[in-house]
């Protein structure tokens, strides 16, 4: 393992815990020095002071993984490794690299006979140590060399490892990118529901904790709902109050959500809830302007007058439906990208790998798994019969919550975008006939007709 930051170190120790002999290297000698002391007694873990020494001690074919920041550091590590490795060795990038970089690296190294694999790892620092979700892609023969290791260290659901081969070339990093896009979208939806219940319905942190606790015991069971439940109880060491209330409302991001949106537009495929999640993090950054605008418009949430429990129930249904619609967008993107980029991504295995260990793990994944088991070529999970029945049953809650939120001035762009996606996707005849007419009017862009084959142009207004 090259790079012994929190993720690299924990993943390496996880490997050792499963009986694999491991060696770690970091250019920061302190990190290398403290590695062995952190290992579980009886495991084989070595920290070495140079790449040369590390590579020399590996069995052939060598399996070298790096967990370093995305971008130039990955290329630098590759260049330092190249004189040391041989044909047939496997180099794995386990960071959040952009898939186009991975594609370039796969080709570059394949020319030299070295296998390069892009591998998504999800689950944060705790997951890395105890069982992450792992999304490897690239050369399938190279994958076979690391398959037993990855299956051993991955999270397990019903005894099955939360990892599988994700497809050719950069498929592993592509799947991880979309995973993160869905992660952004679900986080946005949860934060909107929090706004509705907190500012709108007046629930305090204890009540919010109870609501999320109850939700997490039912159909909404998921990692993100679970941690949200706990967040409401966390005390602030400085004020003694709840920590969530003193956290500044400016969201950070490392870019993977944005990449998902950008690539969706390139394909093209519609992922509006991911787009809006990125946009809302961006707007959150304009704090000073928002403060000014809030004064001009006297914009505050108007308290709800309705019965609290009714709003809570509707919010639960709205969140559940909107989350399904987020997965629908992300998975449809993977379906399309797999075809366009010829990655052969097995969607059934993707949702299987996401069932445990990762940030977007949720009880819903088993329904998606069933859907893809019945039809591996499903273009969109909304076309699956049993899932369609669930969406139809829950949709009224989503519509009602949006209507209420809009009237009470709660910004719910994520929920609205999910509903708009559904309403457009399930519409036989959209209003885009008018757009075609306008395009032809001002630009002679031509249009097709519903009653005849071919392209047509009209001298409009003539
Ligand atoms: C995971 C996460 C992780 C990601 C963080 C931060 O699956 O463990 O997706 O890889 O880096 O969630 O992402 P942002 O800083 O962009 O929110």
Task: Give an account of the 3D structure.
The strands form 3 sheets. A 4-stranded mixed sheet has the order 3-4-5-6, sandwiched between helices. The chain has a two-stranded parallel sheet with strand order 1-2. The protein has a two-stranded antiparallel ribbon with strand order 7-8. The chain is built from 20 helices and 8 strands. Helix content is 55%, strand content 7%. It has 3 domains: 6-165, NAD(P)-binding Rossmann-like Domain (Rossmann fold, 3-Layer(aba) Sandwich); 176-425, N-(1-d-carboxylethyl)-l-norvaline Dehydrogenase, domain 2 (Orthogonal Bundle); 435-462, Up-down Bundle (Single alpha-helices involved in coiled-coils or other helix-helix interfaces). Helix 9 crosses helix 12 (256-266) and helix 15 (308-340) packs across helix 18 (385-407). The protein is of the alpha/beta class and 462 residues long.
What topology emerges from the helices and strands here?
Layout: H1 6-17, E1 22-24, H2 29-33, H3 35-38, E2 45-47, H4 51-56, E3 63-66, H5 72-81, E4 90-93, H6 99-110, E5 115-122, H7 124-130, E6 133-137, H8 140-153, E7 156-157, E8 160-161, H9 171-200, H10 205-216, H11 223-231, H12 256-266, H13 272-285, H14 287-297, H15 308-340, H16 347-353, H17 364-374, H18 385-407, H19 413-425, H20 432-443
Parallel strand pairs: 1-2, 3-4, 4-5
Antiparallel strand pairs: 5-6, 7-8
Bound molecules: 6-phosphogluconic acid.
The site of 6-phosphogluconic acid has 13 residues, from helix 9 and helix 12.
């Amino acid at each position: 393992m090259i790079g012994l930051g929190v993720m690299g170190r924990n993943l390496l120790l996880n490997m050792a815990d499963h009986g694999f002999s491991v060696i770690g290297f970091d250019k920061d000698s302190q990190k290398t020095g403290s590695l062995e002391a952190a290992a579980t007694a009886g495991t084989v873990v070595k920290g070495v002071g140079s790449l040369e020494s590390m590579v020399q001690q590996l069995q052939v074919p060598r399996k070298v993984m790096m967990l370093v920041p995305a971008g130039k550091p990955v290329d630098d590590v590759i260049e330092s490794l190249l004189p040391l490795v041989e044909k047939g060795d496997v180099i794995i990038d386990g960071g959040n690299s952009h898939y186009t970089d991975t594609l370039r690296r796969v080709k570059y190294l394949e020319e030299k006979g070295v296998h390069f694999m892009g591998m998504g790892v999800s689950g944060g620092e705790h997951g890395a140590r105890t069982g992450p979700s792992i999304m490897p892609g690239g050369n399938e023969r190279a994958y076979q060399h690391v398959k037993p290791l990855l299956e051993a260290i991955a999270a397990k659901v019903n005894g099955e490892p939360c990892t599988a081969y994700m497809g050719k070339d950069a498929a592993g990093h592509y799947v991880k990118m979309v995973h993160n896009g869905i992660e952004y979208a679900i986080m946005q939806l949860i934060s909107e529901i929090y706004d509705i219940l907190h500012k709108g319905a007046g629930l305090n942190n204890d009540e919010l904790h109870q609501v999320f606790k109850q939700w997490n015991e039912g159909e909404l069971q998921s990692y993100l709902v679970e941690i949200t439940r706990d967040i409401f109880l966390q005390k602030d060491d400085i004020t003694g109050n709840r920590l969530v209330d003193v956290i500044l409302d400016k969201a950070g991001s490392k870019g993977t959500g944005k990449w998902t949106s950008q690539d969706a537009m390139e394909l093209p495929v519609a992922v509006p809830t991911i787009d809006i999640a990125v946009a809302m993090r961006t707007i959150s950054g304009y704090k000073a302007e928002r403060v000014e605008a809030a004064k001009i418009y006297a914009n505050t949430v108007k308290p709800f007058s309705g019965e609290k429990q009714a709003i809570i129930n509707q919010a639960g249904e709205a969140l559940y439906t909107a989350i399904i619609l987020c997965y629908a967008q992300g998975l449809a993107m993977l379906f399309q990208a797999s075809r366009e980029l010829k990655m052969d991504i097995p969607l059934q295995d993707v949702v299987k790998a996401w069932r445990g260990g990762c940030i977007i793990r949720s009880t819903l994944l088993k329904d998606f798994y069933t859907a893809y088991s019945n039809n591996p070529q499903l273009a969109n999970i909304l076309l699956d019969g049993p899932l369609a029945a669930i969406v139809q049953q829950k949709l009224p809650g989503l519509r009602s919550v949006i209507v209420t939120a809009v009237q009470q001035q709660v910004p719910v762009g994520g929920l609205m975008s999910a509903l708009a996606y559904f309403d457009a996707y399930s519409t036989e005849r959209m209003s885009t006939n008018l757009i075609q007419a306008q395009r032809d009017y001002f630009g002679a862009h031509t249009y097709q007709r519903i009653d005849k084959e071919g392209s047509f142009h009209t001298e409009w207004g003539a």
